[in-house]
Amino acid sequence: MPAEQVTSASRPRRHDGLLAERGGWPELLWIPALLFGAIARLRSMMYARRARPVFEVGAPVVSVGNLAAGGTGKTPMIAWLAERLRERGLRAGIVSRGYGAEERGGVQAPNDEARMLAEMLPDVPHVQDRDRVRAATQLVDRGLDVILMDDGFQHRRLARDVDLVLIDSLRPFGLPAPANGGLPVEAPIPRGLMREPLSALGRASAVVLTRVDAVDEATLERLERRIERAAPGMPVLQARHAPVAYREAGDPDRTRHPLHQLEGLEVDLVSGIGNPGAFEATARGLGVRVHSHRRFPDHHSFAPGDLDGLGVERAVLTTAKDAARLDGLPEVDAPGRLLILEVELNVSRGRPILDALLDTLPPTQRARERASIHEGLHG
After folding, report:
1. Are residues 160 and 35 part of one domain?
2. Residues 8 and 122 placed together within one structural domain of the fold
3. Burial of 27 (0-12, 13-18, 19+ CB in 10 A)
4. What pLDDT is recorded for position 233?
5. What is the pLDDT of residue 9?
6. Which residues of the chain have pLDDT under 50?
């Protein structure tokens, strides 16, 4: 799918933008969407009744997932959790499916999330594998204390001790509001972006509303009431995606520059993420003058020519996730031409709940065996 050049005189026409509109050909997708929803409910029921196997791997598992396809902030949350576990003296490893990763010589290359996490957490092992039970077992065999499963809410084969579900406050059901007004479409794939209905939250440990600083209190209250009706008593936390600095692509020292230096700077935005509107809103909130925003599909593999016309008259500003896929393109290879906005997740409400969930994680089976031997020797 081609990118969309978005200026003040145009609006996005990505796949999600087309699905957001009511009427026309997208309504034909309700037929396969109803089938998708029925299959999802049947699959969930089979796991609930133990008709499908669930595997333990001998170490606690913390899953971070969502209900709607697209970006909700799972990667920053994984990084946040890894740091909190490190503070507790626990060694974490990450497993993910590796969506969008390319195969090179028969080996799956790291995708954009994996490369981003490798930069943020260079000492945290990460295994990409469609079979996440196999991936988790590899990490347990390496002596890791906790497994962090990225995008794992629907991956029920791997047993988990904590199930966190992230919901984007700007786009809680995956799609933006229609351009001509009205409520966002809330529908299963492929009519919408919902993988499961809101009622699936009943099996979560907690819900984390992300990008809460991008909406007003009334919107948050309405969303929390819906969650309470779908999953009574469910803990609802809040998190912000806070920009912390920017850096220049190609800088071997990865020097972080203060955000105030971006104020008043005219840039072209480039993104290939699940929620490009959130990125643009963040950039404008920093005082950046956005000349254009070239939006690509989520996980887009950038190629020469994708950025034609950009990075000549003004700098290009992108996300850390996109920067991993833009690396090496000649259009942005000159020093200072590609600027990377670094964002960190900040849990602004409900931090004690997450702390309690992490503090009560059971030890690995190997740790229990060592403790048992130790007690036997001193019994």
Report:
1. yes
2. no
3. middle
4. 97
5. 36
6. 1, 7-12
- Assess whether 89 and 200 both reside in one domain: yes
Structure tokens at 74: 């799972």
219 and 96 in one domain? yes
Shared domain check, 135 and 57: yes
Q: Could you please report the per-residue DSSP string of 112-177?
A: HHHHHHHHH-TTS-EEE-S-HHHHHHHHHHTT-SEEEEET-TT-TTB--SEEEEEEESSSTTSSPP
Total number of residues shown for the chain:
379
Predicted structure pTM score: 0.86
Q: Is 250 left (phi over 0), alpha (psi -120 to 50) or beta?
A: left
**Which residues, other chains included, contact 275 with Cβ-Cβ below 8 Å and sequence gap of 6+?**
70, 71, 72, 168, 170, 171
C-alpha span between 241 and 270 (Å, rounded) = 18
The full 3-state SS of 325-360, as one line of letters, equals HHCCCHHHCCCCCEEEEEEEEEEEECHHHHHHHHHC
User: In the structure encoding, which two tokens stand for residue 273, read together?
Assistant: 């993420």
Domain count, the chain: 2
Per-residue pLDDT, 331? 64
